[in-house]
Amino acid sequence: MPLSVETCLTPELSFQHDFTDKTAVIIDIFRATSCITTGLNHGVVSIKAVSQVEECFPYRQRGYLAAGERDGRKIEGFDLGNSPFEFMSQKGKKIVMTTTNGTQAILKAKGASHVVLGAFLNFDAVAEYIVQKNKNVVLVCAGWKGKYSLEDSLFAGALAKKLFEFHFQANNDDATTSCLLMYERVASNLKEFVALSSHYQRLRHLNVKEDLDYCITFNLMQGVAELQESGEISLFR
Ligand code: MLT
Q1: Distance between the two ends of the chain, CA-based, in angstroms?
Q2: Predicted confidence (pLDDT) per residue in 152-187, tens digit
Q3: 230 in helix, strand or coil?
């Protein structure tokens, strides 16, 4: 029996989706899920995603590094911002992280059997994880402050296309179909297309173009970031 892929275009619409007994894929390409994936693949032990800045302090007292941003800018007094390159040199560390959208979206997927983070950086490994789990899938786009975002929807379309090569189908979910059609239309010039996105423009002004180019690179790493029952995100084993 085919399994279904549905897409939640922004976390504000998560109430429309039932996560029970499904695999949830949280997508914040620019940049939270790309950062977390990068960190864990470079030896970070685990990452705790929290909603509020103040929630990071008790973790920090216990030895965690505090990471995150608001409106793309590093939070004052934090150890790390939200650049994937900063996460490459934190081997052996535990991190607590709060971001404008990405960590908020991670906290929305209540009741899912498995919660995994989506990134182009480990695209094939994420697809393989989903196929192996053999459950219906919800793709959750983190967006920007409740609004739709181009780069997250593009990733949802790319992943849906890949999953449709296996026993998955959109099952009348127009959000998934539209993400897929958009991805197919622009797949050959992804960089030019994502440069049109509002977040690309927003972050370009913060001089993080290198981060953006990196975040849309396919398959640089193999490890998949998975939310554990403990509430920490670590590599799936
Ligand atoms: C977020 O979670 O809102 C993003 O990762 C923002 C950013 O690019 O820093």
Answers
A1: 27
A2: 999 999 999 999 999 999 989 999 999 999 999 999
A3: coil
Question: Is the CB of 99 within 6 Å of ligand 1?
Answer: yes
The residue ranges of every structural domain in the chain are 3-226
And the tokens for 84? Answer: 């994937």
In what helix (H) or strand (E) does residue 41 lie, and over which residues does it extend? helix 32-41
Please tell me the distance from the alpha carbon of residue 106 to that of residue 231, in angstroms, as a whole number: 10
May I ask the CATH class of domain 3-226? Answer: alpha beta
Strand pairing partners for 3?
Answer: 168
Q: Characterise 172 by phi-psi region: left (phi > 0), alpha (psi -120 to 50), beta (else).
A: left
State the pTM of this model: 0.97
At 48-84, the pLDDT tens digits run 999 999 999 999 999 999 999 999 999 999 999 999 9
Q: Does residue 30 have its Cβ closer than 6 Å to ligand 1? A: yes
